[in-house]
Write a structure and sequence with these properties.
By secondary structure, the chain is mainly beta. Helix content is 5%, strand content 45%. The protein binds 6-O-phosphono-beta-D-glucopyranose.
Length: 278
């Protein structure tokens, strides 16, 4: 069952329930902010002090960074404008009692053309089942080509950051955004300080291990992954986050970022997919 719900300030979201899982997706940003398998904990971290307000991105869940990741396009706001744009619900289909597929769409508007002068169709397809599948499809409906960088910026909930281990990035080329240095990763990743790195040439599954759970993440249409945790000082400066929130999550972001950008000619399309199992 999929229901359209509204907070008292008019902020709208979809609540999806089937026999295997529940999920909540805001119409603003097509932002998945909850996903829970039956009998399991929440998959995503969601800040208890997040805004749920038009024009402000939700802190947690899976923000869509589009059409630019970070400041890859300095003419756009950080992480682009999709996460604060209102999507329309295209369809919600009950495939069977365990599986619901929801599609939301954003197309260019007067406002978007002022920020980014391209016509586009952006569709998020979410399959809520005993795994979560997210597909972000961009179609260039303009007469000129455009460059795209993007991310499915997932905030994974942790028992504690000290218990988190990320596997699958050993020997991958990596750019450290904090030191501006390139190097090859060495071994599994653990967190003891601020972490903001983009890994390239990633074509394999990534595994996030927490104390009592293992999350498997597999992407398609992407060869880059960003791993981020703000740690103590940056966390205090972040909007929509309590001072010690950095202990509760790590972001593992399926991206087309930096050298892994996408060029779309008129009528061409690109889909960034990620599947999360736990
Ligand atoms: C990450 C970036 O993807 O997003 C970080 O690598 C950034 O540098 C973080 O701080 C959060 O960004 P924002 O815009 O949601 O505060």
């Amino acid at each position: 069952m999929t229901e359209l719900k509204k907070l008292s300030n008019g902020f709208e979201y979809l609540e999806i329930q089937n026999d295997s899982a529940t999920a909540k997706i805001a119409l603003q940003g097509a932002h998945i902010f909850e996903y829970k398998r039956k009998g399991k904990d929440e998959l995503f971290w969601l800040s208890e002090v997040s805004d749920f307000e038009l024009g402000k991105a939700i802190r947690g869940g899976v923000p869509i960074c589009w059409p630019a990741f970070g400041m890859n396009n300095p003419d756009l706001p950080q992480h682009g404008f999709a996460r604060t744009s209102l999507f329309e619900l295209v369809s919600s289909i009950e495939v069977d009692s365990d599986t619901t597929i929801v599609e939301l769409r954003l197309t260019h508007s007067k406002e978007s053309l002022k920020l980014w002068n391209y016509k586009f169709e952006l569709t998020l397809k979410v399959t809520v089942s005993d795994s979560l599948n997210i597909e972000l499809k961009t179609i260039n409906t303009d007469e000129k080509e455009f460059k795209l960088t993007q991310a499915l910026h997932s905030y994974f909930k942790l028992s504690d950051i000290s218990n988190a281990v990320v596997k699958g990035l050993d020997k991958k080329p990596c750019f450290d955004a904090l030191t501006n240095k390139n190097f090859l990763e060495d071994g599994d990743i653990v967190f003891t300080q601020e972490f903001d790195k983009v890994y390239q040439k990633v074509d394999n599954e990534i595994v996030l291990q927490d104390k009592e759970k293992t999350i498997n993440i597999k992407s398609e249409g992407s060869s880059s992954v960003v791993i981020w945790n703000p740690w103590i000082d940056k966390c205090k400066r972040m909007s929509g986050m309590k001072n010690d929130a950095y202990k509760e999550f790590v972001c593992i972001e399926s991206t087309n970022a930096f050298e892994d950008f996408v060029i779309l000619k008129p009528k061409e399309e690109h889909t960034l997919k990620t599947q999360m199992c736990f």
